[in-house]
Amino acid sequence: MNVSAHSSIPNLRKSAFNIFQAGVAAADPYQAVRRCLIADDNQLQILLNKNSDKRTGRWNKTHLIAFGKAACPMIKAAIDTIPAHYLSGQAIAVTNYENVKPVPGVNVIGAGHPLPDDAGFNAARRCAEIAQDAKVGELVLVLVSGGGSALIPYPVDPVSLPDKIRTTDLLLASGATINQVNCVRKHLSQLKGGGLVQMIAPADCHALILSDVIGDDLSAIASGSTVPDETTFDDAIDLLKAKDIWHKVSSIVRDYLESGQQGEVKETAKPNDACFAKTSHTLIGSNTLSVKAIMKAAQEQGFDAILYGDNLCGEARDEAGKLVYFALAHLSTAGNRPIALLAGGETTVTLKGNGRGGRNQEMALAFAIQAQEQGLQGNWVFLSGGTDGRDGPTDAAGGMVDSGTIQRMLKAGVNPTELLYNNDAYTALKSSQDLLMTGATGTNVADLQILLIQPFQS
């Protein structure tokens, strides 16, 4: 694509969306699972890493447990690859309601996300039953994707599901990172923090994991149900106190965590626990791979592609401001060629208002405001979106703003700065027709940011 083809805002918006879609496609869960499984009539081989190392077994039966936003395509890929005589007949997939799709031979269950519900609780119990049914010489193939933490809530006794939901809600509102949220969730769960592997033992376990966590810490993805947990009850309590929500969680939660702190309740599974002797993992997709895909897509569309960051974190509105300043500095030394500043990561939002939105919508709105205030020149479009198609508790994947966004908002009679202050990015972006709407994508590898700029001709 030549330079002049990028000149109009509609063309830039189309390019930004296409680049985003390339990042989502790179995290296709069905193909990722198919690449990792090799089966014939005698044995099953599982790819362990990019070096083509394999785990080979002649297991009597293979049980399938899938949970997360990509559960349906992942388990379908497993069933399409593994010969039927290997399969136990016990197969379950738990996903968020938007991603429910029928899969022959699989009990597909829709459950609540981002906050857990009773459907997820019942599904978690079924996952536990399958895990506990597995015997020596059998394999439990666990297919893990982002969102799994909320989708299979199985609170420890005597913590109730409403207690756990309230704790999760308070953590999310406090601006806690995903690792911090999971630290607490693991210590209130029977499945998380290696709990599922403890139920599977002494049978074999292998997990194929699609990462929605920046840095791909396996213990953080879906709260690490198949990997050791190095956090402690002390850590969970300290975190709740540091976020000033210790006094807000239920007394039952506080009592349970204090019992664990005093050694009266068993800790989560640790690295040296025997249950991990027959457990292995494969990372099959991640934000890193999707960032590489958007870099390639931007270059193919004629942009000078620059990696702004592959570990974007921090407060969404603060990161938006930093990106504006970076763009201004870059433009001061750049020529007239169209540029793409690209990033991947997972920002946070500390709620201070009562509006609607998510971290990507907030970042898009904050960027539009800062770009206007700082005088970002040229035609530009900024897209920030969740690869799962869902940003916070809304129907939008994020936001896609441009150099005309603020004027459209003002014309619609809304005050973008006031709405940002009230964490109401959804209302602001809806007024300017800048919500990014993709629908559920069936995958989840965190967020992607795409800033396209066509400098004015000098």
SSE arrangement:
Blueprint: H1 9-25, H2 29-36, E1 37-39, E2 44-47, E3 54-57, E4 62-67, H3 71-81, E5 87-96, E6 107-111, H4 118-133, E7 139-144, H5 148-151, H6 161-173, H7 178-186, H8 195-200, E8 204-210, H9 233-242, H10 251-261, E9 279-285, H11 287-300, E10 304-312, H12 316-331, E11 339-345, H13 359-374, E12 379-386, E13 398-402, H14 405-411, H15 416-421, H16 425-431, E14 435-436, E15 447-454
Parallel strand pairs: 4-5, 4-7, 5-6, 7-8, 8-9, 10-11
Antiparallel strand pairs: 1-2, 2-3, 11-15, 12-13, 12-15, 13-14
Helix pairs in contact: 1-11, 2-3, 6-7, 9-10, 12-13, 13-16
Structural overview:
- It is a single chain.
- The protein is of the alpha/beta class.
- The chain has two domains: 3-24 and 288-454, MOFRL domain (glycerate kinase, domain 1, 3-Layer(aba) Sandwich), CATH 3.40.1480.10; 28-154 and 189-231 and 268-285, Glycerate kinase, MOFRL-like N-terminal domain (Rossmann fold, 3-Layer(aba) Sandwich), CATH 3.40.50.10180.
- The chain contains 16 helices and 15 strands.
- It is globular, with a radius of gyration of 23 Å.
- The two termini are 20 Å apart.
